[in-house]
C-alpha cells in the first residue's frame, strides 16, 4: 500500500478550495482523486463536511510549515480518532493480495480515512517537516516534500521558477542602485 498516494489526497483537497464552492466542483475533485464513483451521490451535507475537513487538513499543514510539530501531530491524532482507519486485504483486477483502507461512512469520512492515514504514515516515516506550504508569495499551496534532502520549498516548478526570477530581478535592482 503506497500511503504517499493517500497523503496526496490531502494536498489535493487543501489546494482545491475553489472546487468546494458547489456540488459540481466537489464532484470534479472526487473524480480527480479517483473517487468518481462516489461523486454522483454527493450532497450539500457532503460539501459542507469536505469544507470542514479541508480546514482541518490546512491547519495541519500550517502547523507543520510553522515548525510546530506538536500541534501538527495533535491535529492528525484528533483526525485519526474522528476518522478511524480499518485496513482490509483485497485482491482484484488480477492483482496480488494487497491492503486497502476500508472507507465507511459519508463521502468526507471516506476521503478523510485515506488523507489522514497517508499523512500520519508520512509524518511518522519521514517527519512533520515533510508537510509544507509554498514559499512563493502569494501562493501558499500545500505540498509533500518527498525529496531525499528535505529541500522542497515550492508547490510546483512554476512557483519555484517565478520565485527565482523575482529574486534575480530584486538582486539586479539592488546592484543598479
Automatic annotation (TrEMBL):
SUPFAM superfamilies: Jann2411-like. Pfam families: ABATE, zf-CGNR. Residues 130-172 form the Zinc finger CGNR domain. InterPro entries: ABATE, ABATE_dom_sf, Znf_CGNR. This is Zinc finger CGNR domain-containing protein. It comes from Spongiactinospora rosea.
